[in-house]
């Protein structure tokens, strides 16, 4: 996307390579970098000690066994263009706050500008004293560290972040929590699937991948997303929290980590049960434990919120998700690993994939959140019920066609 893929001086036996550039400014404020080569064996980057910052994922297929060290350099200068500054109309600014926002209409550079707008509009740039140029660099770096998966890609990142931004406004979260918490919510949404390989935790564990081994089978993907997020933030050039004090950064780091780890659906029942208990005993905004649980539920809602959106926006996401599922199940069959029925192309259809998920996961979760924010019922719960009815009708039509 940003120029031609450089070819390493010798072949390497890895599934992908990461080019990491240390950016510097040059007139007229263009970003340039000299790439360094790091080996990524499909799961995790082995970064050399002197490398920080911009990552360019490069696909490289090789079958030879020649190894390459972290110190290997590619002597190729590469421009990293600034995305253009878009002037957002008032209509777009207002639309961006709505759950009905159509995320398919925007090019990658436009999505970057819309994310940038969110940080300014919510007062996060002021709250964390973020250098606006660093914010741009950070967003570019985040974008480049999302892979081109059918579903878990940068558009999904934007989709989840936009829904979080919409929920902040719909629920007027600034009345219940500090600006720092809003920043944690939005940043966790932006980073929540960084470097997702397109194969879920079940595959990682069953295939005994490097990620599963590193994280002892405990939320390997979510732990990896966190690690990549803070690798990016470890570079002063892309650290949007560089100007906060140590205690504040410690809270931010703990908060973002907590929220990204909460997106593991294996923890769904645990988190929802904890939230329900707090509602039963009386939800208290001033209780940190209560507020943390609410924030975990909010990012969970945003992560799987596609069916809240209008049908023309949500339905293409189902096709993307099924494509990713089928890629995984095909690989699992080839490798002799267990295959989940809901991911098997021979067993699942679009309506069967969605009906149970909407009925038993989405609607109960959003109904529970609606006990704290009543406005969610009309704006989110009702569209979910409409979506369920639509898929049930679709299933009936498919079954009727089979009988003829």
TrEMBL record:
Zn(2+) 1 binds at residues 156, 192-193, 303. AMP binds at residues 152-156, 193, 303, 354. Keywords: cGMP, Hydrolase, Metal-binding. GO terms for molecular function: 3',5'-cyclic-GMP phosphodiesterase activity; metal ion binding. Its EC number is 3.1.4.35. Zn(2+) 2 binds at residue 193. The keyword Hydrolase applies. PANTHER family: CYCLIC NUCLEOTIDE PHOSPHODIESTERASE. Belongs to the cyclic nucleotide phosphodiesterase family. PDE9 subfamily. This is High affinity cGMP-specific 3',5'-cyclic phosphodiesterase 9A. It comes from Elysia crispata (lettuce slug).
